[in-house]
Specification:
The complex is a heterodimer of chains A (328) and B (326). Chain A has 328 residues and is an alpha/beta fold. Chain A contains twelve helices and twelve strands. Helices cover 33% and strands 23% of the residues of chain A. Chain A has an eight-stranded mixed sheet, sandwiched between helices. Chain A is globular. Chain B is built from 13 helices and two strands. In chain B, a hairpin with a 2-residue loop joins strand 1 and strand 2. In chain B, helix 10 (230-267) packs parallel to helix 11 and helix 12 crosses helix 13. Chain B is globular. With 326 residues, chain B is mainly alpha-helical. The chains are: A alpha/beta (328), B mainly alpha (326). Chain A binds chain B through residues 56, 58, 86-91, 94-95, 97, 99, 102-108, 116-117, 120-121, 152, 154-155, 165, 168-169, 172, and chain B through 217-219, 221-230, 232, 236-237, 240-241, 244, 314-317, 320.
Chain lengths: 328, 326
């Protein structure tokens, strides 16, 4: 296997608060290969967005990366000086945010914003950058791009604006795109278009994609692999088919059980009792143990480490001593 | 866009007519103008003759119509104390006030924006805290006190700057300017600072608050994610978005700068419209007071109109909602 585009090892992110240090991300490790889409799923506050922001180096104080390493194409980027990290952002990592309505500066034409970004990262003339901007707008599916380039953000619909945001994210041919809930703010009909656009761009350019969302449907449709996050840790990670059809972690099982099917067996959706712990009150041992139907003594004392199970990797004591065959 | 401008202009005319009513009624509530003009020993017949010659016997509505008609041609009658046309007095004094107000506003804008941007971007430096302290002083100290303190320091103690007047002025047509002579420029410094200090602190606080607000928005976060340079983010994106409300406030404040000039002009004996107005109040010179009221209102209304139009130029969103609405 070739070297992964993005490699995150034991990432820890802390937020200093008045009541002491809160650990938002606690020992997260994952890889994304060239052309691969990794879905990151979890409830609000599980640490999905913070993971994405720490990769691109945009964790705002009082938050900080407290430990671990992030490598992008072999280069360690979590400890780069600010100016060098700035050059990585937009150039080697593109980012798409949740709300396209507020991601663009309302006072500048979309074309100017694209040209500005292109010229920040690539050594192109004004005219060349503009030509490239028109190509990009065409590539993300904006009709009449040579006219629309001179439009202001408020003249675009939500879906069209998200396309502009995507054009901005890919304008310097990044190796990695981080998409943070890219479809959450959009109409369902537009969601599918945006998802297929991100998927197509990832495939055409060989870009690695980290897709953060709480929508399992989006993950199932788009991703090659999926990481299920819970309370700042990865509970389970593996190929999307395997995780969706044979989830190992009790939390992942709960999540998959909560997806409604059109096939319509007439049964109630599974509910996970309780809610995710606050960062200030993460229980000892496995953070999921108070909500877990299978929890036993060890879960309340010792924190489970990720362990491989076939194609998947799961952090759960249930699989500690069980041979792999009988696991699922 | 044209319809928008036109509608605003009509509103402005409405406001001016209302102000005209107020100015006009000043004449009727401040006693009999004939008494102000004549001596104790004037006979009743003579008073009646004057009254008739001034048209004071006509119905109120006719008098008002005449007043507005004259005011529209910048005829405000004759000053009781100077026996000169009010419009001529105002024209003589206006350049002084406008030069002072413009200098004060430029001072307030430039230093207010610089200090505001600095204290927003370097929030925890001692200089930012110092600016905050200065702004507190500027907001809480009354204008005349600042003027007197400046005079005490720079005129009386150090002897660097003149304590009153405009210095030497140069005539360009009917306009007189102090901007072309050294003594005129020196005389402008302290009154401009005194007059502009309050606006400066206002603008500084506004810029700081707006800038902090803008720096938290998604499009600034996204601009950072695009890898733009800090300079481009701060000055290209954040500052421009900050300036939208600042332009409105600074523009509207220009009107109050002219109005506030009354105090500054009194402290520095600045020969402008404000000083003329204060003298008029002391001598119950109603034509000047009424004309001053109309002039200041006209300036306010004009500025309002210009600011509204400027606003649509800076912010493209307004441009299209305006044109879409018509």
């Amino acid at each position: 296997m070739t070297e992964p585009v993005l490699s995150v090892r034991n990432l820890e992110v802390e937020f200093a608060s008045r009541r002491g240090t809160l650990r938002a991300i606690d020992g997260v490790s994952f890889d994304i290969a060239k052309g691969e889409v990794l879905g990151v799923v979890g409830e609000s506050g599980a640490g999905k967005s913070v993971t994405g922001l720490s990769v691109i180096g945009l964790i705002d104080p009082p938050g900080r990366i407290a430990g671990g390493e992030i490598h992008l194409g072999g280069l360690r980027i979590d400890n780069l000086p600010p100016e060098e990290m700035r050059r990585v952002r937009g150039k080697r990592i593109g980012m798409i945010f949740q709300d396209p309505l507020t991601s663009l500066n309302p006072l500048y034409k979309v074309g100017d914003q694209i040209v500005e970004t292109i010229r920040t990262h690539l050594n192109l003339s004004e005219q060349a950058a503009r030509r490239r901007a028109i190509e990009l707008l065409a590539e993300v599916g904006i009709p009449a791009p040579d006219k629309r380039i001179d439009g202001y953000p408020h003249e675009f619909s939500g879906g069209m604006r998200q396309r502009v945001v995507i054009a901005l994210a890919i304008c310097a041919e990044p190796e990695l795109i981080i998409a943070d809930e890219p479809t959450t703010a959009l109409d369902v009909s537009v969601q599918a278009q945006i998802i297929s656009l991100i998927k197509r761009l990832g495939r055409d350019h060989g870009t690695a994609v980290m897709l953060v969302t709480h929508d399992m449907g989006v993950i199932a449709e788009t991703s090659d692999r999926v990481a299920v996050m819970y309370a700042g840790r990865i509970a389970e990670i593996g190929p999307v088919q395997d995780v969706v059809q044979h989830p190992l972690h009790p939390y992942a099982k709960g999540l998959m059980g909560a997806i409604p099917t059109l096939a319509g067996e007439d049964k109630r959706l599974v509910q996970i009792p309780g809610s995710m712990p606050r960062l200030s009150a993460i229980p000892r041992g496995c953070s999921f143990n108070p909500r877990c139907a299978f929890a036993f003594d060890r879960c309340r004392i010792e924190r489970p480490e990720p362990q491989p199970r076939g194609t998947q990797s799961v952090a759960c004591h249930l699989y500690d001593d069980v041979p792999a065959e009988s696991a699922a | 866009m044209l319809a928008f401008t036109l509608r605003r202009a009509i509103q402005a005319i409405g406001v001016m007519i209302a102000v005209g009513v107020i100015a006009f009624s000043m004449f009727r509530f401040a006693g009999d103008p004939v008494n102000q003009m004549v001596g104790m020993d004037t006979s009743g017949a003579e008073r009646a003759a004057i009254r008739k010659s001034l048209g004071l016997d006509d119905p109120v509505i006719v008098q008002f119509g005449r007043y507005v008609g004259n005011a529209a041609q910048f005829k405000f009658g004759v000053s009781y104390q100077f026996r000169l046309p009010v419009s001529r007095l105002l024209m003589e004094r206006m350049p002084a006030t406008l030069e002072l107000a413009i200098c004060a506003t430029i001072f307030a804008m430039v230093s207010g924006i610089l200090m505001g941007v600095y204290s927003a971007l370097r929030r925890d430096t001692w200089l930012a805290h110092f600016f905050q302290a200065v702004s507190l002083i500027g907001i809480s100290l009354p204008t005349f006190l600042i003027g007197i303190l400046l005079i005490y320091l720079f005129s009386v103690t150090l002897g660097w700057l003149p304590s009153f007047g405009r210095g030497e002025v140069v005539h360009i047509g009917w306009w007189t300017t102090g901007l072309l002579t050294l003594s005129g420029l020196k005389a402008l410094i302290m009154p401009s600072i005194t007059l502009g200090l309050f606006q400066m602190t206002l603008i500084m606080r506004l810029v700081r608050a707006e800038m902090l607000e803008v720096m938290r928005t998604d499009y600034i976060r996204f601009a950072r994610a695009r890898g733009l340079t800090t300079r481009a983010i701060h000055f290209g994106h954040a500052l421009r978005n900050t300036l939208v409300p600042v332009i409105t406030v600074a523009g509207l404040q220009f009107g109050s700068v002219i109005a506030f000039a009354i105090i500054t002009e009194t402290v520095f004996q600045w020969p402008g419209m404000g000083l003329l107005f204060v003298q008029a109040v002391q001598n119950v010179d109603i034509p000047i007071m009424a004309a001053y009221l109309m002039m200041v209102s006209l300036i306010f209304v004009t500025i309002n109109l210009v600011v509204d139009i400027l606003y649509t130029i800076v912010d493209p969103r307004l441009r299209s909602t305006v044109s879409r609405a018509h």
